[in-house]
Amino acid sequence: MRLLICSVLLLSISSAFKILVYSPRTGQSHVNFLGRISDILVEEGHDVTVLLPIVGDRAPSNGTKLAKTIVVERNPECIVEPAGKAAFDGDVWKDHGLFERFRLMNGLLQICPVKSQVL
User: Fold this and answer.
1) How many other C-beta atoms lie within 10 A of the C-beta of residue 31?
2) Are the beta carbons of 3 and 29 closer than 8 angstroms?
3) Rounded distance, CA 34 to CA 79, Å?
């Protein structure tokens, strides 16, 4: 009888969480990384939903095999890469000076208001 009571108490203590993973489809490595984390959480018994807003065309897959996915299509008004692809690829890791950083940050800030309206 004690074993039955302990089992019921343990079952009521262990519970799964509902987790939302925000994974913008900007680069395939980021999408794969967050997708793998989502799959691990699903395997552990959690209810995981991955929100995938389409930002660019560099990440064709959603990265997860087990989690539920919600794909948010790109708004035609959305600026995908205002500073050009080079600014978001190799040039980010090079030091071009203070004014170049401001130009890059300004380009990123132009993306944010449109994205918040879409979501």
Assistant:
1) 22
2) no
3) 24
Does residue 5 lie in a domain region?
no
Question: Is 105 among the domain residues?
Answer: yes
Look at the chain and report how many structural domains it folds into.
Answer: 1
The predicted structure's pLDDT at residue 37: 95
For residue range 12-35, what is the model confidence (pLDDT) as tens digits? Answer: 566 778 999 998 887 788 889 999
Asked whether residue 35 is domain-assigned, the answer is yes
Three-state DSSP class for residue 8: helix
Paired residues of 48 in beta bridges: 19
Task: Specify which of 57-61, 65-69, 109-113 reaches the highest per-range mean pLDDT.
Answer: 65-69
Range of the domain at 53: 16-109
* DSSP bridge partners of 19: 48
Residue where the block lists tokens 């793998």: 36
